[in-house]
Structures are given as structure tokens and as C-alpha cells.
Amino acid sequence: MFKFRNSLFFVTLQKLGLPALRVYSVACLLCMGCSDKFFTTNNLVETWLNPKWQGPIHVMVSAENADSVIIFLGLDPTRFPVVHKDEEKIYRSGFLRLGIFSFTDKKMIIDTASLNLSFPINRAEKYLVCSVGMKAPFVKDYQLWVKPERQPARFYPVLRSTYQADAEWRLTHEKGEPILDPNELLDKPTLIGLRNVAKGKEVFVRRFNFLTCQPLPPFVNSFTPCPSQMSTLGVLSVNQNQTVPVILPGGGIYLLQVDTSGVGAKRVSIIDEASLQWVNHQALRYITTQEEWTRLEQEQMDVWDFWVSVGGSTQRAVQLSSAFRNSVIEACRLFGEEVLGALTDRGMIFIVFGAPTSVYTSQTVETWTYAPSGAMPLLTFDFDITHTPQGISKYKLRRNPYFREPWMKAVERYRR
To answer: What pLDDT, in 10s, does the model give residues 298-347?
Structure first.
């Protein structure tokens, strides 16, 4: 059930944290030649798990008007390097370059900007939100490129092709601050805003159902995806382009739409403890035998007994189960689609084989490479990229019988 507040606020969003200096950069600073190669020469995995990456922890892109968007960046100031200006003034300082490119023509730069960030070393806040306005005209989709100084870049979608596409929405607290961390929607009243919605329209809040099926191993060619199913959890009235305050009921993959039969939606992925326990159990299928999985499903063995049987001791069981749980958390954070990330093809490969050595992407294919290690040969996994009418990107693994032996070795290594 949803929890509502009686009062409704409409507050103009303001920049939070330190003022962000916006500087238009010349194109050559961002893109030398601006070919598709530019988008396939950044090793994306370097931004996934690197605690020293100085880019944003969270990003929300929200339309400001028909011509431009506001980029909200959630930053961890402790990741920025220390700068000594004099004996008494010690600062942390960071520099980010941003670029918005055409989604279909990577040679077309729409806008560029830079952020210079500087704050005292003793600043108490562990999380800062900065914002910058950038050009991204309505009725097209784009890519946002964020690159810290002397570090790899990361890409984010900027979807504006329909009036209810992802970037047309804005999630805020009652006082107007943007919500970048989706988990805040579970315990703080949230206003759901849509830039251009007709009077009398309603916002449908739907969630993909949890389905007890997992992707098959990469060597199984007869791949049958789980059919996606959604339930409508609530219908919210709109006033001045915003809904009444709402608290979402739990974890999962949510879609916000005004027209459920139309193209485009706001997708929100939330992982709470209940959904994490559920998806952690489902992902165990990757590393269990058929007999073990049957016993788990029929509740003849609980998850802890499984880990003790695999580890051989309580201490080892704690180590193995914690490592597995952490992999599931990261997979859900990185790879969500219509299902939680740990139950996608990319999530499965990530959990069983670990983080790849390199990840390169184009408009249609993402390629993961694992360098040879011990008895494990060089491995390359290709994922074909498609997009749903709601704007969700889906990554389907190209399966091959060749992967059987490496898969068995990886599972055995995991269980040790």
C-alpha cells in the first residue's frame, strides 16, 4: 500500500552542496574525432567497482524545459584528492567534464560543460548533490558522458523522445530537493513530477512481478526468457505537474507512466532487504547442483545449511555467503532491466565469473573480456542490446556450447 500525505508542496529545485561552476568546453577537449570508436575505448568496468573513481555515485537527468535538462550529480567528496593551498587551507578538489551526444549519431555533440568542485577537508557531509544545466532538446534521445580528470568516463542515457520518457520526470522530497538514491523512496514522502502533463491526467505506479526463474547457463542455446509481468500498485492524482506525496511499498523494478499503452516511462530500481534476500536465494541456482536446488526450493535445506555444506566450516560458510551476497548486490546495482540485475544475463556472468577485465559497448553490442587466469582461458561474452517501448535496455547473451567447461570451472572455484 502507498502512504500519502495530505499536504502538497511545489518548490523550485535549487542546487545543493557547493555551487557548481559551469564552463562551456570546446569540443576537442571531450572528443577527438568524435567517431563511434570514442564510445568503445572506455573500459566501463573501471567505473563500476572502483572506490577511487571520482565520478558521481548517483545521476538523475531531469527536463528543465523543451530545450534543456538539469543533470543532478550525487558525489562522495572523500573520493576527491587533497589539495594544500597553504598551511591553514586544505581542500578536496575535483574536476568533471560532461558531454551530451546524439544517441544515434555519436559524432554529433549537443552540449558540453565542466564542473570545478572545491570544499574544505573537514567538511562533514559524506554526500553532496550538485547540478548543471545542459542542452538536450525534446523529442530525441541522447547519451551523457561524465569524465573525471585523468580517469575513465561513464555513460548515462538521456531519454527525451516522448513526453513520458525517463528524463521528463523528476523525483523530489517535499521541500524540493531531488532524490537521486532510489532507496529513499521507501521511507521519505516523494513528489513525482512530470514536465508536461495535461490537467486531469493520473500517474500509474506499476511494478514488475517477481518471477521465480533464472537465466540459463551461457552454454545452453535453448534460451527462453522469463515473460515480464507487471502489477499496478497505485494511481496518483496530479496537480501542477506533480503527484501527491507517496512512499513506495518495497523493493523491485518500478515504472511510472501517464499512459500505460504509450511509449516511454520512468524506471526506478529499488533493492531493500526483503527483495535482496529473495534475489539472493534465486541467484543460488547458478552455483548449486540440481539436487541442492530442489532441496532448497522444497525447503528441505535452508540457505545457511547449503553454505556450511559447501564451506565445510562456519567460518568458511560466512566468507562464501558474504562474498556471494556482495556480488548479488553489485549485480542488482549495475545491471537491472525488467528484473533485478542479479537475474539478468549480465548479472549471472558477473556473479559466477566475477568482474570482467574489460567492458566495451557500442549502440548494439556490449562485450565483456576476461583475461586468462590459471586454468581459465581467455573468455569473451557478447550481449546484444535491445530496447523496450518503455525505454529499458535489455542485454541478451550470445550463448555457445564452448562456455560449458569454463562455466563448470568457475562454479567449482566459487564453491571452494
So the answer is: 999 999 999 999 999 999 999 999 999 999 999 999 999 999 999 999 99
Neighbouring C-beta atoms of residue 400, cutoff 10 Å? 14
Q: How far is CA 357 from the centre of its chain?
A: 20
**Residue 334 sits in which domain range?**
273-415
Q: Catalogue the E-assigned strands of 249-398.
A: 252-257, 266-270, 358-361, 365-370, 379-387, 393-397
Residue 408 inside a domain? The answer is: yes
Question: Of the residues 92, 127, 161, which one is the last residue of a structural domain?
Answer: 161
Residue 1 clears pLDDT 70, i.e. is over it: no
H/E element holding 83?
strand 82-84
pLDDT in tens, 36-73: 444 455 678 888 888 889 999 999 999 999 999 999 99
Count the Cβ atoms, other than its own, within 10 Å of residue 200.
7
C-alpha angle 408-413-416 in degrees, rounded to nearest 5:
130
Which of 129, 161, 193 is the endpoint of a domain?
Answer: 161
Running DSSP on this structure, what letter comes out for residue 275? H
Whether 34 shows a pLDDT value over 60: the answer reads: no
Query: For 24, which DSSP code?
Result: P
Asked whether the beta carbons of 258 and 201 are under 8 A apart, the reply is yes
Domain count, the chain: 2
**CA 156/CA 42 separation, integer angstroms:** 13
Same domain, 157 and 277: no
pLDDT score of 148 more than 90 = yes
Kindly list the distances between the CA atom of residue 165 and the CA atoms of 36, 138, 364, in Å, as whole numbers in the listed order.
Answer: 25, 10, 20
Share of the chain above pLDDT 90, in %: 67
CA distances 215 to 227, 329, 345, 399, Å, are: 12, 17, 6, 11
